[in-house]
Design goal:
The termini are far apart. The protein is mostly helical. It contains 20 helices and no strands. Among the domains are: 2-111, no CATH class; 112-172 and 180-222, no CATH class; 363-411, no CATH class.
């Protein structure tokens, strides 16, 4: 009885490890053959259920991933045969004609995940669908977990995923890596999706369910492994690693957000911070600057010394404007310039810049929080209170509300 329980535990552990570490690779290999994400997902799920029964009797095979891939492919073929009608022609018939041969050892499984990442993040899909599909296929999150993370109903998220998969098939979105001419734009779109995932986790924290910040790091490392020496991917990894290393210091004793300048640096995870800082230097040394490298350099300027290097940060935001000429970057540069100058004229210059971009950021909560702080420094308390009240009204995160209320109370 004990041996049986031990065997069941070994099977469960093996399948959990495969589902976390290798599901994306197995799924991508299946999709490359089947050209159908839903069919590949269903077949792989059936294969894992079969493994529970077979492996419990005979033990985990030496080539466990190869076993799953072969069984999943056969189950997909069986589904297509059952669905075949007189009118069923084209791609499905071509797959059936290939037979059931997909026998490979673990080390022979082709790694098609890069193609899968670019398919999930194709610009023909809405960005929220890109995020959901990436989490589902590469991260292995369930529909329930994705829905919970983004505060959607499970039904709505399931429908979103189904529509995205159907669009990929109907529109003939290629399961391919973009060519050199498209690479920079498409890579930036992929990194934008991963950064959205990270920010969702950064804002919500692990208490909200699945830790999306950890998921973004996991996906970023996959991408880095598939595209070694790509400076922007290294920049992305550096940025999220540095920010994630500060997670234990971000929330105060009363549950309020603690800004970086007031954080207890002893709570930062030093090994992770050092790894992120090293990645910044590695990325920049390649001589191919891009927005994620610059954002990572800004994060490093906040964390390397005893205090934030505001003059350098202001300069870097100026460089970022060349890549992202947006009102949000202008806001951040204005705040950095005010911090760097730390006198009345620099604050007045920052406030003038904020006046120029107010219309573009009328729905952006950090704009009002930043302006409130600058107004307070100039002694304009009524204006500062109005801006803090507006920022609080627009905030949904309890930790941020606590921080803003505390700042407003100081006035």
């Amino acid at each position: 009885m004990m041996a049986s329980a031990s065997g069941a535990l070994a099977v469960s552990q093996a399948l959990n490890r495969l589902a976390r570490e290798d599901r994306g690779r197995l799924l991508a290999a299946l999709i490359s053959r089947l050209n159908d994400i839903q069919l590949a997902e269903d077949a792989l799920q059936e294969a894992m259920l079969s493994a529970v029964t077979h492996w419990s009797r005979s033990g985990v095979p030496a080539s466990a991933k190869g076993w799953l891939l072969q069984v999943a492919y056969r189950k997909a073929i069986d589904r297509l045969r059952r669905q075949k009608t007189a009118n069923k022609v084209g791609a499905d018939m071509a797959i059936l004609a290939c037979g059931e041969d997909f026998e490979v050892n673990d080390h022979e499984i082709p790694d098609e995940r890069l193609r899968l990442i670019f398919t999930c993040c194709h610009p023909a899909l809405a960005q929220k669908s890109q995020v959901a599909l990436t989490l589902r296929t590469l991260g292995g999150l369930s529909t329930t977990e994705i829905a919970r993370a983004f505060l959607d109903s499970e039904t709505a998220m399931g429908q979103r995923l189904s529509r995205a998969q159907a669009k990929i098939k109907a529109a003939g979105i290629p399961f391919a890596v973009p060519d050199a001419a498209q690479w920079p734009e498409r890579l930036n779109a992929v990194l934008a999706v991963l950064y959205l995932i990270f920010n969702a986790g950064y804002s919500a924290g692990p208490a909200a369910g699945h830790d999306l910040a950890e998921e973004a790091l996991f996906l970023g490392r996959i991408l880095d492994g598939l595209c070694p020496q790509e400076a922007e991917i290294e920049g992305f990894l550096a940025l999220v690693t540095i920010n994630h290393a500060r997670r234990d210091a971000r929330i105060g004793s009363n549950g309020e957000t603690v800004p970086i300048g007031a954080q207890d640096r002893a709570l930062w995870r030093r090994s992770e911070m050092n790894a992120g800082l090293a990645l910044v230097g590695q990325a920049l040394s390649r001589g191919r600057p891009g927005p994620y490298q610059i954002k990572a350099a800004i994060a490093a300027c906040h964390c390397e010394g005893a205090a934030s290097d505001w003059p350098q940060i202001a300069m870097l935001y100026g460089a970022l404007l060349e890549f992202e000429p947006t009102a949000i970057v202008r806001l951040n540069r204005a705040v950095a310039c005010a911090e760097a100058g730390a006198d009345a004229s620099s604050i007045d210059g920052a406030l003038a810049e904020l006046d120029a971009i107010e219309a573009a950021l009328a729905d952006y909560q950090p704009f009002f929080a930043a302006r409130a702080e600058l107004q307070a420094r100039r002694g304009r308390m009524a204006e500062a209170r109005a801006d803090y009240a507006k920022a609080i009204e627009m905030t949904r995160c309890e930790a941020d509300i606590g921080f803003l209320q505390e700042r407003m109370a100081r006035l």
